[in-house]
Amino acid sequence: MGLYHNGNYHNHASAEIDCAGKPFLGITTLNYSDELEKELQYGTGSIALGVSQGQYKPNADMEMLKSEWERMKAVLPQNGFGEFPFNIGATFKEASGTIVDELRTVFITKVENASQQGPAANKVKLSLCVVEPIRHNGSTLVKVKERPRLALRT
Question: What are 95-124's pLDDT values in tens digits?
Fold first, then answer.
């Protein structure tokens, strides 16, 4: 449940989304999640002795108006835009406060175009590979260790 203040929850209408440091208003959907695998470990008996930790797996995709995709491509390298990392920031502002989620070192892995009959605008869906732990308003699911970072496109 989001923060609540005077009847307002944080929602997509209060979102400001930036990619590679540039704001994009035509992003209609931004989905992101992360998972830290855990496995129960057993010895003799039926009760677990403990747990082992597996891999951390962030996941993300976004959908935007086709015209906004054309704007985003202008920020990315024309030749090989899927080979260059960038950051995504999602800022949700309401009277109750601001929430900032960050996806760092993101690569585009798939581009899907859609067109349909009717008044709906054409959209593009991007599948994303997120390298660093997702920052949920400053918190991460997995402990972040300092390590060399990839050079990002700014």
Answer: 778 889 999 999 999 999 988 888 889 999
- Amino acid letter, 14: S
Residue 115 phi, psi (nearest 5): -140, 140
Taking the CA atoms of 141, 137, 131 and 109 in sequence, report the sign of the dihedral they define.
positive
Average pLDDT in the chain: 88
* Record: fold of 12-42+49-136: Pnp Oxidase; Chain A (2.30.110)
Query: How, if at all, do strands 86-94 and 27-41 pair?
Result: unpaired
Give the pairing type, strands 15-19 and 4-5: unpaired
Question: For the whole model, what pTM was predicted?
Answer: 0.82
Measured distance between the N- and C-terminal CA atoms of the chain, rounded to whole angstroms? 33
